[in-house]
Every structure is written in structure tokens, then in C-alpha cells.
Amino acid sequence: MNFKMNKKEKLEWDKFYNKENFNWPGEPNKVVSRILQYKKSGTVLDLGAGEGRDSIFLAKNGFDVISVEFSEIAMSKLKNLADGSKVNINTIIQDIEDFKFSKKFDVVIAIGLLSFFTENKAKDLLKKIKESTKKGGLNAIAVRTTDDKSKGIKYFFKKSELNRLYNDWEILIYSEHNTFKEHKDHKHKCSHAVILARKP
After folding, report:
1. Which architecture, in CATH terms, is 7-18+28-198?
2. Among 15, 111, 126, 153, which is 20 to 30 Å from 192 by CA?
3. Which residues are within 8 A (CB) of 81 and not within 5 positions of it... i.e. 6 or more apart?
């Protein structure tokens, strides 16, 4: 299964991350912050890490983190933020297609990543994520759902679909919710499904 971003997509994401003064809010995604209720340490794989707010949060809380991101600009920002936070993160600049799922992790997170692939690719990647999680390990996943009006999304998960894809795991948190993003000339709805699940 080919997950590789094409040249145009890479340029668009580099442009996105290269915005002046662009940074995601310093706080981690809410579902990532809830990981600490269930695990206090261990190895983490952050897929599509972006500028690294989740990676840095977990590293600051004692986890051994590997961050995978194909945008060199985003990864440069992640490294700078990690240095500023005085944490060590193993960074890998690589397409998901080229990443070797050769070991298992205590925690695997993919926040926003899966919806940027087609349905078949997203579900194949989710299967790899689950297989790469240790027994008793956690997955924190966030995807876009069918009410979403964002551009650039390739697959909108159906209502309760992410929940069903984890029906063989212990579901610790599951929610579907809407947010609104305001831009210069318009406002649009973003619809998310979020899960934190533990492998039996």
C-alpha cells in the first residue's frame, strides 16, 4: 500500500508550516494529555508529528519519543521547540510509506494524519499502527468525520467508524465533536472523532 505524498502535496505542506510565526498552540491535543492517566513512561511513536506539540509534551513527561514527519520545515521547528524545552526526541524526516514498522511501542499517536489518505490507505495504516503497539499499549487517534467542511481531506470517517475499528480493544475515551475555524474571508466547520484505546 502506497502512503507516499506527491511533490505537490509536499510543497503545500511546507508552505503551510513555513507561515511566519506559525505554531500550533503549545498545549498538546486533549486526548494526548489524557495518556498520562494510563501510562507514566514508555516508548512513543508520533506519526505525522508536525511541529511536535504532542511529542514534546510526552517527552517532557518522561516518555522516549520517536517523531516521524515528512516536512523538513515542520521538523526543524520541532527540533527547535524540543531544544527550547530541553528534551531529547528522536526525529525522522520520512514519508509514512518509507517508515519501517519494525518494532512495537507502548504508545502510538496519529493526530489528524489518517484523514489525509484515501480510505483504503487510511485503514491499512491504522492496521499497522495497531500491530505496532505492545500488549497493554495505547493508541491516541484523531480523524476528520463526514460533517467536516475542510479542504484537502481525502477520507472523512463515518459516524462511530473509528470506534468500531477499535471494537477489539479496550476503549478508554471516544468522542465526536465539531469546532469552527476562522480565516480571513470565511469560517468553516471541522468535525473530529477522537479515540484513546488500550490493546488487550
Report:
1. 3-Layer(aba) Sandwich (3.40)
2. 15
3. 23, 51, 52, 53, 56
For the record, the C-alpha cell of 52 comes out as: 511536535
Q: Global pTM?
A: 0.86
CB 98 within 8 A of CB 64: no
CA distances from 145 to 154, 162, 190, 193, 195 (A): 11, 9, 8, 6, 13
pLDDT of residue 29: 92
Closest by CA to 23, choosing from 68, 66, 56, 65, is 56
Q: Name residues whose C-beta falls within 8 Å of residue 79's C-beta, 6 or more positions apart in sequence.
A: 89, 91
Question: What are the residue ranges spanned by the domains of the chain?
Answer: 7-18+28-198
Determine the Cα–Cα distance for residues 56 and 123; give it in Å rounded to an integer: 27
Read off the C-alpha cell for 116.
489525509
Closest CA to 195 of 150, 138, 131: 138
* pLDDT, tens only, 140-159: 999 999 988 777 789 999 99
* Residue 64, all three cell numbers: 522516549
